[in-house]
Amino acid sequence: MIPLVLVAVCAGAYLVARHHQRAMSSGSRPGQFAPEFSLKDLSGRTLTLGKFRGKVVLLNFWATWCEPCRQEIPAFVQLQSHRRDLQIAGISLDDSAEPVRIFSSEFKINYPVAVGDAALATRYGGILGLPVSFVIGCDGRVSSRHIGEVNIGELTRELDSLSMNPACTSK
């Protein structure tokens, strides 16, 4: 019985790793163009990644029930308030928009937020846990992927470095 369970676990791990490897090649790795999307934000406006070309983008996948998400969002609100060279966009993976609206109001989120789905998460390499944030350069290429709550100091240094790119400063 134990060998059969071990084989099943190994096969499952192999299939998950294979799926993750295929998903990671879909445009979410550093240096590749970030996958485009079109979603309605909480205000009913169309949210697309392309609309932010020329700015550094912090694309944050999160959910209202995610404690690390709740911890990092106030820092994102502060970053968005103080940096004109940065555009933050939140993609909630909640099942519906209503809890996201309540959360956004409570946390005074000052950047666009939309409700995403598993298909979008897959296009970004598979989101197996939350939060996951992507830093996208002003050219639309993924600079980095942060799994879990971001270290704001490290993130700020990365954003500073990307903002120095002449392509960003000329916009």
Tell me what you see in this structure.
The chain has helices at residues 2-24, 67-82, 97-106, 118-123, 152-163, 166-169; strands at 38-40, 46-48, 56-62, 86-92, 113-115, 132-136, 142-147. With 171 residues, the chain is α/β, with parallel strands linked by helices. It has a single domain (27-169), classed as 3-Layer(aba) Sandwich (Glutaredoxin), CATH 3.40.30. The strands form two sheets. It has a five-stranded mixed beta sheet, covered by helices on one side. A two-stranded antiparallel ribbon has the order 1-2.
Could you provide a short overview of the structure?
The chain has about 170 residues and is α/β, with parallel strands linked by helices.
Any idea how many domains? 1
User: Which CATH architecture would you pick?
Assistant: 3-Layer(aba) Sandwich
Beta-strand portion reads: 15-25%
SS-based structural class?
alpha/beta
Spatial gap, N to C terminus = 64 Å
Q: Unreliable runs, pLDDT <50, ≥5 residues?
A: 3-25
CATH superfamily: Glutaredoxin
Order of helices and strands: HEEEHEHEHEEHH
Q: Strands, helices and their partners?
A:
Elements: H1 2-24, E1 38-40, E2 46-48, E3 56-62, H2 67-82, E4 86-92, H3 97-106, E5 113-115, H4 118-123, E6 132-136, E7 142-147, H5 152-163, H6 166-169
Parallel strand pairs: 3-4, 4-5
Antiparallel strand pairs: 1-2, 3-6, 6-7
